[in-house]
Amino acid sequence: MNVNKLKQDHPPSKIHAKIALSLLLAAAFLWSFFGCQSVESRRATPFPPVSTAPRQVPTPIPEGSPAAEAPPLSGRITFHSDRNGDFDIYVMNADGSNLKRLTTDPGKDVEPAWSPDGNRIAFSSNRDGDYEIFIMKADGSELVQLTDNNFNDWAPDWSPDGNRLVFASNREGPNRLYLMDANGANQRPLASAGAGDGWAPSWSPNGQEIVFVSKRDGNSELYLIDIEGDNVRRLTNNDLQDERPTWSPDGAYILYMAAKTRTSLFDPDEIFIMPREGEISRQLTDNLIGDITPTWSPDGNWIAFSSNRDSGDWEIYVMRADGSGEPRRLTDVPGWDREPDWGP
Description:
Blueprint: H1 3-9, H2 12-44, E1 76-81, E2 88-93, E3 100-101, E4 109-114, E5 120-125, E6 132-137, E7 144-145, E8 153-158, E9 164-169, E10 176-181, E11 188-189, E12 199-203, E13 209-214, E14 221-226, E15 233-234, E16 242-247, E17 253-259, E18 269-275, E19 282-283, E20 291-296, E21 302-307, E22 315-320, E23 328-329, E24 337-343
Antiparallel strand pairs: 1-2, 1-24, 2-3, 4-5, 5-6, 6-7, 8-9, 9-10, 10-11, 12-13, 13-14, 14-15, 16-17, 17-18, 18-19, 20-21, 21-22, 22-23
């Protein structure tokens, strides 16, 4: 190669200029490809709203696989039914076997709730004219009336240690939440009268919070309150009704029923699950009629609920807690079998 010829045709200044121009063009190309892409990506992701309140990351909602092997059914399910003419409390094994009627009063005995140890059942009854809270042993014996007034006390739920009950009452006006000892002593409102209405309470497994329903903001929504009656926090925000919340055994999730749409004839309720922190939810059931009043199995693997999907009356079903597979029907008689509660 003739070096002198090369230098003559392309002097160093021109060579350096061409090299610099090439590098500049390459840098511009790389910035346009990567830099602009990064800017557009940042533009597509808005900054979260500024909040002065502490924020917890929602627990992810697990998705299930129908191919996974179904865990065994265990424990007992109590529910109320009018299959014999009036509403009474019944109990059966978790597979639907060994059904027993526990109450026979002409009044309406409804909303049974297992004590944590499975030895007692609390329920509400209008056998004396208005609804009061009763407890009995798991075999229906040793019935004790805990409340006695001229108003309605209903929807009892046990504290995790079995020493107290939370319930709803309209004894001082609108429905509010009340606490009492398991023997009926020390009945008191959970929060002050100005704290708003509330019903359908469910006590958290760690004993520190209660989830409940309220219309304090104009619609039936789910709220959390601590056991001191403070720090109320709204969990749902929907145009339709959210009702009947219940905790998962580990306290990470809350089941509830909600209307998925409103029609001129009925609101077809379905079962939903959300993290304890709220904010997101997933629908577990979907049919034309409705699925209501869910409850967890003690091991957290199953959900029992009431549905009229297969007939003109309400029956008890169980399904896997992740919503996978087909629900299994446990009862099949004319009448309304509703409000299941799953105990040990």
